[in-house]
Amino acid sequence: MSQIIHKQVLFLCTHNASRSIMAEALVNHYLGDQWQAFSAGSAPTQVNLYSIRALRELGIEIPEAKSKPIDYFSGQKFDRVFTLCDDAREACPLWLGSSHVEHIGFPDPSVAEGNDLDKLRAFRDVRDQIKATIFPLLEM
Questions:
Q1: What is the arithmetic mean of pLDDT over 26-49?
Q2: One of 92, 104, 112, 138 is an active-site residue; which one?
Q3: Is residue 63 domain-resident?
Q4: Of 12, 13, 23, 52, which is the active-site residue?
Q5: Is position 1 within any domain?
Q6: Does the active-site annotation cover 85?
Q7: From the centroid of its chain, how far is CA 51?
Q8: d(C-alpha 106, C-alpha 83), whole Å
Q9: Domain span holding position 29
Q10: Is residue 140 part of a domain?
Q11: Residue 139 located in a structural domain
């Protein structure tokens, strides 16, 4: 029996609370037969509950979602590294050990204003943008 070898991708964002958490969960859910995704932040905070809700709408559960600092992955090699916000791009302009580092900025849904539905809509929009933008790059 042969062992399946997955490519590894790391998503970086400042707080590792919204965009990078959703990217990690989406890739592991939809592309998990080829990729193993991870995420971290330059200044990690608590995972945003709207991220969890937006993922749950797609049937993706992340019961142990926890923000991690970039240092957690120090020294690990990744096939791809994506920075998803401008602050993360500045905080980690170089990821040694990765053959491909790319910046793709997405709006920060955590700054959305309005009622509960307005805020959730902002997270849905970013979730869908991540799928539409990142997936084709990983499926190449």
A1: 95
A2: 92
A3: yes
A4: 13
A5: no
A6: yes
A7: 11
A8: 10
A9: 7-133
A10: no
A11: no
Residues in the chain: 140
Residue 85 pLDDT: 85
Active site residue 62: no
pLDDT band of 97, cuts 50, 70, 90: low
Answer whether 95's CB lies under 8 Å from 81's CB: yes
Q: Name the 3-class secondary structure at 39.
A: strand
Question: What is the domain count for the chain?
Answer: 1
* 98-124 average pLDDT score: 92
* Concatenated DSSP letters of 86-135: HHHHHH-S--TTBS-EEE-----GGG--SSHHHHHHHHHHHHHHHHHHHH
Please indicate whether residue 92 is annotated as part of the active site.
yes
27, 52, 65, 85: the catalytic one is 85
CATH of the domain at 20: 3.40.50.2300
CA–CA separation, 31 and 131 (whole Å): 11
For 48-71, give the DSSP string.
PHHHHHHHHTTT---TT----BGG
